[in-house]
Amino acid sequence: MVKLDRRKNIKEISQHPQQRPMIKMTGPIFNQKKKTVPLLNIVTCSNVISPKRRENMGSLLGLISTLYRWRMNLSRRTGWGIKVNNNTANLKPPMNFYNLSASANSGEEINFEKYRGKKLLLVNLASRCGFTPQYAELEQLHQQNNDLVILGFPSNNFGSQEPGSDEEIATFCKLNYGVTFQLFKKGDVKGPHQQSVYQWLTDKSKNGWNMKEPQWNFYKYLISETGNLLQVFSSAVSPLDIPLAAGQPR
Questions:
Q1: What is the CA 240 to chain-centroid distance, rounded?
Q2: Per residue of the chain (250 residues), what is the pLDDT tens digit?
Q3: 3-state DSSP call for residue 49?
Q4: 164 in Cβ contact with 36 (< 8 Å)
Q5: Would you list the domain boundaries of the chain?
Q6: 3-class SS of residue 196
Q7: Which CATH code is given to the segment(s) 84-241?
Q8: Would you name the residues annotated as active-site residues?
Q9: In the β-sheet with 229-233, what is the strand arrangement from edge to edge?
């Protein structure tokens, strides 16, 4: 087994793509066929639910966080699930990234021209996923890097783990993780109804080199200050392990 220092650059970790035996996890978090506690409904109706149901919700989120820490520690030690695709040839996008736009969670249409000169991290999100604690890590990254912008795209494409409305998603993120980075309206990040931003991210005729669609929730796409797609990170890569130029604290 290759033992890796968690402080080492994630690029070095990605050079040890060991094949790990699949660990079967069961229970309401990992078994998609079983019904899960309706987290979004509990949170958004917090003014009328019983203290017992609030306690149950907190316990479930605590369990998710515990399992998440175990999962990420294992990935850091072994490389399990860590995948990084790099634009090593520094290929330029045939289609201008800044011509894109998307609808914010609030309904406002945002033109990506406003992000010119900023490094961006685009992430597909879900509220009932084993990687959901990455909301907190994304918020930490957002707060600590003045020149990095986090763009979150809720999606129900994987395991039906984001069934809530845009209003419910925003409330969940705010109450449980204090999210202040930009959230967009829920939409598809793969398949025939894929939203335009993810069409750009996953089509090399538009971005210049990458054809990799998200394989699960919390895939991450890093965009340079000039609109080039730099890297693609799998769910198992913590946002805090992504190598970034040091930003100035907010």
A1: 12
A2: 444 444 444 444 444 444 444 434 444 433 444 333 333 333 433 443 455 555 566 677 888 999 999 999 999 999 999 999 999 999 999 999 999 999 999 999 999 999 999 999 999 999 999 999 999 999 999 999 988 999 999 999 999 999 999 999 999 999 999 999 999 999 999 999 999 999 999 999 999 999 999 999 999 999 999 999 999 999 999 999 999 844 433 3
A3: coil
A4: no
A5: 10-78, 84-241
A6: helix
A7: 3.40.30.10
A8: 129
A9: 84-86, 229-233, 220-223, 119-125, 148-154, 182-183
